[in-house]
Amino acid sequence: MPGMLYILASFTPWILYWVLSGLGLEIGVALALIVSAVLALPQLLRGELSPMDAASLLYFTLAALATYALGSRLFIEESGLLGYLALFLMALTSLAVGKPYTLQVSKRDYPPVYWSDPSFLLVNRLLTAVWAAVFLASALAYAFLGFPLSLLLSNALIAAGVALSVLLPAWLPAYLATREFRRYDWSVRVKPGTLKREDEYDVIIVGSGVGGLTCGALLAKWGYRVLVLEQHYQVGGYCSSFRRGGFTFNTGVENVSGLWAGGPVSYLLSELGLSKDDLFVRNRVRFIYKGREIEASSLEEFTAALVSMFPDEEGSIRAFFEEARRAYEECYSDLAYGVPLPAALIAKVQGPKKLLDYPRDHPHFYDWMNKTYRQKLDEFFKSEDLKTLLCALLGYLGTRPEETPASSALTAVVSYYLHGGYFPKGGAQRFADALKDYIESRGGKVLLMHRVDKILVENGEVRGVVARGKVYRSRVVVANANAKTALLELVGEEHLPKDYAEHLKSLRMSPSAFMVFLGVDMDLSGYPSIIENLDEGYSLVINSNADPGMAPAGKSSVTILTLANSRDFPERGTREYLEKKLRLAWELVRKAERVIPGLGEHVVVVDAATPRTFERYTSMPEGAIYAFDQSVGTKRPYFKTPIKGLYLASASTFPGGGIEAVVISGAICAHDIAGWGREQSPMGLRVEKGVRGRSWCTRTLGDYLEEERRVKWRIYSTLAELSGGGVIIDVGCGDSTRGILLTARDSFVVCVDAKPKRVGKEFRERLEIVVADARLLPLRDHCCSVVSFVFTLHEIDPRAHRNVVLEARRVGKYVAVAEPSPHGVELYERFWRTYRSAVSSIGLFEEYRPREYWVALLKQAGLQVLLDRVIEWRVATPREVLESVVEGIAEEWERLGIDRAHIESIRGVLSSVGEFKWSDIFLIVGVGAQLEMPR
Ligand SMILES: Cc1cc2nc3c(=O)[nH]c(=O)nc-3n(C[C@H](O)[C@H](O)[C@H](O)COP(=O)(O)OP(=O)(O)OC[C@H]3O[C@@H](n4cnc5c(N)ncnc54)[C@H](O)[C@@H]3O)c2cc1C
Fold first, then answer.
1. Residue 659 C-alpha to ligand 1 middle, in angstroms?
2. Could you identify the atom of ligand 1 that is nearest to the CA of residue 660?
3. Do residues 26 and 158 share a domain?
4. pLDDT value at residue 698
5. Ligand 1 mean position, distance from CA 669 (Å)
6. Measured from the CA of 656, which atom of ligand 1 is nearest?
7. SS3 for 720-779, per residue?
8. Where does the pLDDT of residue 441 fall: very low under 50, low under 70, confident under 90, or very high at 90 and above?
9. Which range of residues forms the domain containing residue 765?
């Protein structure tokens, strides 16, 4: 029973009692006692009784005794005073014993995932206090005011209580989540593309780590004049590489997450038109634990390996990964801005309701958010060995399982089991350079060997920076350099609130690392690219196994890494330092020789990096790998600082360290600077009035075709990614061009279309063309990876949508829907209406729907929404394209025998339109419960 109904039911005896007693009738007491007994009985049989129903039963028993046994009229004449007093005492007692009585009601409206949430409990304490006050005030009204004033006042108080009961839960969680953030939630509006002085920029970024470059690249794309200042001679920060004697080594990054179809790094690449396949390659990882080797290239293989080692835990292993998968998908569902947002931003950008609904919409992930990784492992497993094995990648966070938030472990560790990790092709530097090149290609500037010495602040607002004695001006500065250096040194403590500066100082740094770089004249291609040796506590990366270009032919580029602390190393340049570095390097080589015999004898190039080396090259205090310690309870600074206009985009802020995480931080920062969609516009172009609040522009035919390629690429690459080299059934394939392109991305594509004329004649390997109504094909359950409907469903009778999706769910693991929506795009909407009335005249459909409709459709079919993305169409359709589209339509309609009046009216739309643009496209992917990982 929902909460409101339950309250109504609980109040029924009271309403009967007050009304009948008000009329002086004793029967009110008897009826109230009967009703309260009826309400209490089922609860008593279950061994529980809510405080409200318990109070009612007690009160009416006493009232009945007094009225019928003692013949007193006290409970009839003073029904208002006594009744409200009793309710007040009930509310007060429930508060005093720590079980606020409204909790019982709220639990009916909110699922168990809320029940231990601190803000849920606080809301209920407050609500119970509010009701206690309402009951007391009403009792006093009856004590001191006469009829009808007492009745009016008590009813008014109850109405106020009801209003608060609705408003408080909706408002308070968002208020609490944004309380601290609001202190610094300033806004600096920068209009991109407006003329500036030579030394003035829309945005200046201090440091060229991946967080800074992500922010810069997105802003450059949206037309902002960006300047990146980097102290080092190359970009990338920790994401960089160096060459020695023909070998390439990464200074860190070798296993990157977030590159699956809906992942944040994929989002960045697709926004910038960069190809994942050009920049990354999937790693093969081997774990060594208690002398056993476990190697798996997919979740299935990893699960099977674990089951063979721990057969008693088979059920738990499968349940663990199933829950982890669900939690992970929830975390990444509903990415309106391409990346997950922290609570404060969900409340600010998507509204308080979204935040309130977060636990309900993300129950599994929410559970992971509120536990440590250790707690999660304990929940599923008995074997300590198995738990240790599942902590193998915790080095990626640098924390122990009991101090690691389970949600961080999920996104930064378990995600590697679910979606795999990727090696940056050609070395980490190539990825960083691609971002730099993108910024420069969009008119941005990246100045190397430009150490920023000061961030200029006036009256609490940022004004620019000083580097190499020169002032660069901007009202927006993004600190990618770590937060301690940026705020305490470059800004200066004098500009910061005392508590903020003290908090920054108190933050512990994460561990650092010791690394050995080896060029060896050995062919190690028989090994995987990464070996995680848990027995000896190191990671061994054979870079050239991921990308052979990292070493000369027949040789190998190898890196060995172990966690280390800066304080264990003497001052750089001293003899003790060099000796320690050498000793540790060879100790690691000797350990690695137990896995790769003879490694030491084949070394032709050797180098090593200590925490002090990392600090030297990046200015990161203590050479910390992930900036701040990532344990539970660490409160990283928000991405907005107390200085107006000064942002953070790096591992120092949400969500923490690692490439995926800093991409998220860079994207959040860019979106905030751009006003969450307010200011984004392609650079230097004529910008028309926004379409649904966004901007779009007129460009040449070449730009239009480029935009068409970009939009299609985003859809196709998602399909290819989901299929993971498996089968895609492309329903409504049109001329099968899409299928051909997808085969080039290693998918096996079955193109299905009911209209023979629309199906191409192109026959290729890995491509099958079927002319049929897809619903009638005898396809086996789960016989393909993806069933895609790209611009198909709007041509199907909406009454059949549900069955179509159910059938797709039966057949495939993923169901992908891509649909445009002319709603709100004025000229496209006119075009569409004319089109729809023409095709409906011969019984066809052209039924566009809003995004929510498609999302709900997938959910109703029992699918979990894995991806829900809007792909913007930003370029106007040139006249010549529109003319050829309309002529094509006219020809087809003539062939189909559509009335000439319709043909004239679609031509009429064309002649009347000024500027025309296709609508944005919704790309929504659902996943069935039977899902296994894409390989
Ligand atoms: C050994 C090691 C291994 C790692 N392995 C992985 C991995 O496999 N996968 C993964 O996802 N992550 C990995 N990481 C973590 C990942 O590399 C980092 O979290 C991420 O690259 C940090 O990016 P960032 O944007 O915070 O900037 P950083 O990389 O910290 O760069 C900050 C930049 O600011 C510059 N700077 C500082 N002060 C100034 C100044 N005053 N003026 C101008 N410029 C300044 C620095 O020179 C630097 O270029 C690893 C890190 C290390 C150290």
1. 8
2. 11
3. yes
4. 47
5. 17
6. 19
7. HHHHCCCEEEEECCCCCHHHHHHHCCCCEEEEEECCHHHCCCCCCCCEEEEECCHHHCCC
8. very high
9. 701-825+844-877+920-927
